[in-house]
């Protein structure tokens, strides 16, 4: 259905974003405003999170049960993980080059900075540090799928859903009632998603209002260069790097951005990629990505294809070295790429994952972890940008994998 420009969801969310900034600025450091707005923002995020896991499970199970080709599924998984590793590595390299070129940490005045509390991130990193890559892979297989669902362990949920879908496909005729029931459940969840999204502008207004009221605009000025460098680099990565990848596969990054503009604005405003997962799956399917690809690639990408996050981590690590005037030669930066390639996947799904990854990475490289205390206060602003990039990257991944598999069937869609 074609919408008028003035009433589209993207514009409604944008209006909520601007109004939230204005109200938050007017009521800066006002506990009453936070008391009013925080429950509204939390309820909206909880509504979205409530339906994400049911949608992932039902969509994957139905898609796999319908296709049922184990060999093709193996090829799909292999190509997906290979693509994710290549793109996230490029993101890390782009981040390192940008940090060396623009030097956002050079000449930073410590006296103008405010230290935040990073103890919870250090605690999480310490609890994860003994977990090797092999342990992470083993952890993907759940001993109890219901526990995985309760804990929101996305990789374990995806694994169980794939196995369950393959089981339904193998059983055949007698399993069709189960598949039909799950398809009905998936359709219901998507319908609920559309109803919840009616409240997105209000949710965005509340979340942005809280952020601005809590931190203010002035708090961004001392680290303005870091913010600018990160956002410019993210813009470059999306338009140039992802744009080139899209062109290689016969697609336009601008077509994708136009298609998912509502989801980009929502992800940016809420700093949560979960808020757009169901609609992102629907959007890429509407242009010709098969359901079994979209429902597998996008949820998996939420753990393995965090382009914006890995780019940010690379810049932030070098920023801290520059801020403390620590010599960080090219050889060390190359090893940083290798470390981030592992640590950015090894603790995927952990809350505050970017800061946790940085705590782990800085510790390995012998850089001062306490430097993160100076940037954690603006992390929400940075998180908004990297979340939007993550969403674009995963939307493109679904299209690329579909084309690589030779299963992309272009459809015309009204935007």
UniProtKB/TrEMBL annotation:
Location in the cell reads:
Cell membrane
Name of the protein in its database record = Proton glutamate symport protein
- Write down the Pfam families for this protein, in alphabetical order: SDF (PF00375)
Q: One cellular component GO annotation, for this chain's record? A: plasma membrane
Q: Which UniProt keywords apply?
A: Cell membrane, Membrane, Symport, Transmembrane, Transmembrane helix, Transport
Q: Does the keyword Transmembrane helix apply?
A: yes
Note the superkingdom of the native organism: Bacteria
């Amino acid at each position: 259905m074609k919408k008028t420009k003035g009433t589209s969801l993207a514009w409604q969310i944008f209006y909520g974003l601007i109004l939230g900034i204005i109200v938050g600025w007017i009521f800066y450091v006002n506990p009453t405003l936070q008391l009013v707005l925080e429950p509204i923002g939390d309820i909206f995020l909880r509504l979205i999170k409530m339906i994400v896991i049911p949608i992932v499970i039902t969509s994957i199970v139905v898609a796999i049960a319908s296709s049922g080709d184990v060999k093709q599924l193996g090829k799909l998984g292999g190509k997906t993980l290979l693509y994710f590793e290549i793109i996230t590595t490029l993101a890390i390299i782009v981040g390192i080059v940008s940090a060396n070129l623009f030097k956002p940490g050079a000449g930073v005045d410590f006296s103008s900075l405010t230290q935040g509390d990073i103890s919870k991130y250090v605690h999480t990193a310490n609890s994860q540090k003994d977990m090797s890559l092999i342990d992470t892979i083993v952890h993907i297989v759940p001993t109890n799928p219901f526990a995985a669902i309760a804990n929101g362990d996305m990789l374990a949920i995806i694994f169980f859903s794939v196995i369950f879908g393959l089981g339904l496909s193998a059983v055949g005729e007698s399993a069709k009632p189960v598949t039909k029931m799950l398809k009905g459940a998936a359709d219901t969840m998507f319908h609920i998603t559309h109803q919840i999204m009616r409240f997105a502008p209000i949710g965005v207004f509340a979340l942005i209002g809280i952020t601005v009221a809590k931190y203010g605009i002035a708090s961004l000025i001392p680290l303005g260069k870091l913010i600018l460098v990160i956002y410019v680099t993210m813009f470059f990565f999306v338009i140039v790097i992802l744009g080139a990848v899209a062109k290689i596969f016969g697609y336009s990054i601008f077509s994708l951005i136009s298609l998912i503009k509502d989801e980009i604005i929502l992800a940016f405003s809420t700093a949560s990629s979960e808020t757009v997962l169901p609609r992102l799956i629907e959007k890429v399917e509407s242009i010709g990505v098969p359901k079994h690809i979209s429902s597998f690639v996008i949820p998996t990408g939420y753990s393995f294809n965090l382009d914006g996050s890995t780019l940010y981590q690379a810049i932030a690590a070098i920023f801290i070295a520059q801020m403390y005037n620590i010599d960080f030669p090219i050889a060390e930066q190359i090893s940083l790429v290798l470390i981030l390639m592992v640590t950015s996947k090894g603790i995927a799904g952990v809350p505050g994952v970017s800061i946790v990854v940085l705590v782990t990475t800085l510790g390995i490289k012998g850089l001062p972890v306490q430097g993160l205390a100076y940037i954690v206060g603006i992390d929400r602003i940075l998180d908004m940008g990297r979340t939007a990039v993550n969403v674009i990257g995963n939307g493109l991944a679904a299209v690329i994998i579909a084309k690589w598999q030779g299963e992309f069937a272009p459809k015309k869609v009204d935007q």
